[in-house]
Write a structure and sequence with these properties.
There is one protein chain. Helix content is 40%, strand content 17%. The protein is globular, with a radius of gyration of 19 Å. The strands form 4 sheets. A 7-stranded parallel beta sheet has the order 3-2-1-4-5-6-11, sandwiched between helices. Strands 7-10 form a two-stranded parallel sheet. Strands 8-13 form a two-stranded parallel ribbon. The protein has a domain of 212 residues: 3-Layer(aba) Sandwich (Rossmann fold). Helix 1 links the parallel strand 1 and strand 2. The chain is an alpha/beta fold and 340 residues long. The protein is built from 11 helices and 13 strands. It binds UDP-4-deoxy-4-formamido-beta-L-arabinopyranose. The site of UDP-4-deoxy-4-formamido-beta-L-arabinopyranose has 18 residues, from helix 7 and strand 8.
Length: 340
């Protein structure tokens, strides 16, 4: 059974990916500093899969501790690297913390992999590297621009580091996520942002749960069908399954290049109002919201071309918007019941 190290594996996408890896028969070891996620994720993964992944609590910004952690797992076949701070607004307020955490953690991980001979690396990147795209759908060859936020820029810089660091002895796949939402069908795990959610879906579910008074829609004067901004929302389990395909590709040496990039989206864009409508209809409820000003740095319209992932990975997203919004609400309800 091949061992996969999942850094940041207690987080939203990392935990869902760990579930998909275990389902595929991989042994998962999670490295996480628990700065932005809880050890509770390990029990949730165990409840869903019947397997409790090993957790190594480690701050990847600390070079020595990172080496010690990797030495204990030098038999791993690959690393999937989720460990990073990811709040756009916070990164604008604290740029240095973001560059230090996201880039030092990445570099220490790569140096440790080189030291212990772990030759495969999957990177959690983001469509934010495209900035405001000239046209949609966005392909992997669309120009990468200076992202608005330091968070986005850490993803762009990381990809440049990875490209320079990839060679015949070290293979990398960078996965550019569009907008991951939803939760595992069990309702036993899902998105759990610290504090007030920045992202749309957790704000919607917390509003529906009565935790937030109402959702503020950031602008309805965009050049879209209803004036609200358009994104390519993708079910987190589709995203998780794409990571398993990417790991399989590297472990079985199917990759054609030492450094490959794939968009992970559905190829369909939905506006904020369309997401709200789907959420209300699928969950038979009415959501309180108000239109306010645009949020600085927001992109009007962005959605993915998914052809490269389909052609070279043989992967396409399977779950639709209705499934995403239903699963998101199912998790929120279960979580509030657990903690009532
Ligand atoms: C989606 C849409 C908002 C909240 C960012 C990062 C990306 C990824 C996901 C980090 C936009 C609107 C949102 C709200 C709203 N990684 N919105 N009211 O900005 O597309 O992407 O988060 O998590 O790398 O860039 O995602 O969910 O914040 O916003 O109207 O309270 O919902 O304006 O149009 P975004 P988002």
């Amino acid at each position: 059974m091949s061992k996969i190290i999942v850094t940041g594996g207690c987080g939203y996408i990392g935990a869902h990916t760990s579930i998909a890896l275990i389902a595929q028969g991989y042994q998962v070891v999670i490295f996480d500093d628990l700065s932005n996620a809880s050890e509770e994720s390990i029990s949730r993964i165990e409840k869903i899969t019947g397997t409790r992944p090993e957790l190594c609590v480690v701050d990847l910004k600390d070079k020595n501790k990172t080496n010690t952690a990797f030495e204990a797992h030098k038999d791993a076949s690959a690393v999937i690297h989720f460990a990073a701070y990811k709040a756009v607004k916070e990164s604008v307020e604290q740029p240095l913390q973001y560059y230090e955490n996201n880039l030092f953690s990445l570099i220490n991980t790569l140096v440790a992999q080189q030291k212990f001979g772990i030759k495969n690396f999957i990177f959690s990147s983001s469509a934010t590297v495209y900035g405001i795209p000239e046209s949609c759908p966005v392909t992997e060859n669309s120009p990468v621009k200076r992202p608005f936020s330091p968070y986005g820029n850490t993803k762009k810089i990381a990809e440049e580091i990875l490209e320079d660091n990839s060679n015949s002895g070290f293979s990398t796949i960078s996965l550019r996520y569009f907008n991951p939402i939803g939760a595992h069908k069990s309702g036993d795990i899902g998105e759990l942002p610290n504090g007030v959610p920045n992202n749309l879906m957790p704000f919607i579910t917390q509003t529906a749960a009565g935790i937030r008074k109402k959702l503020m829609i950031f602008g309805d004067d965009y050049p879209t069908k209803d004036g609200t901004a358009v994104r390519d929302y993708i079910h987190v389990m589709d995203l998780a399954e794409a990571h398993v395909v990417a790991v399989d590709r590297l472990i079985h040496k199917k990759q054609k290049e030492n450094f490959e990039i794939y968009n992970l989206g559905t190829g369909t864009g939905y506006s904020v109002l369309e997401v709200i409508k789907a959420f209300e209809t699928q969950n038979n409820l009415s959501l309180a919201y108000e239109i306010t000003e645009r949020r600085e740095g927001d992109v009007p319209i962005v959605f993915a071309s998914t052809e490269l992932a389909a052609k070279k990975l043989g992967w396409r997203a399977k779950r639709d918007l209705n499934s995403m919004v239903k699963s998101a609400w199912n998790w929120e309800k279960n979580y509030r019941k657990e903690n009532s």
